[in-house]
Hints:
5-stranded parallel beta sheet; TIM Barrel; alpha/beta; 8 helices; two-stranded antiparallel sheet
Amino acid sequence: MDLYLLHQHYGDTAGAWKALEEAVRAGKIRSIGVSNNTVKFLDKLLPKMEILPVVNQMECNPYFQQKELREYLAKYNIRMEAWYPLGHANRQLLTDKVLVGLAEKYGKSVAQIILRWHYQEGIIALPKATSIEHIRDNISIFDFALTDEDMTAIRALDKGKGTHAPDNMANAVTLGMYKIH
Length: 181
């Protein structure tokens, strides 16, 4: 297996991580990472790790850029992997006048502008694709580059808030898809 993610920080996260490290040493898993881990949780978990995560999969898009977390991850050479890289089809994001203007400037879709922004920021983006056409569109971002001015304009869109709050999930106990408080 190429990459295995420890999805949430529920239960014995340190013990689960140790089991993943053993699987890496046994050659069963090539790389391990985490998902939905904020600086608060990584500060607790990283000192207990022998093998650091290669990625932290978090919500990230032009409206929720996670700048502080990305800077923190960079110190440990951990890559940000974006879920909801297109804002979970957020109509406000997909019709944002800055992004629409850049799409028109480059003859691209707003989604392609956003994916190119992720690429140039060094963020791994895994957008949902429901058709071959979407897959083709999603990978057609390598025939242009956003300028420094374009990148600055997109960085200014950050609202600092996403749809998911991992710090508020730590005390929840789950049973399947049902949360028990």
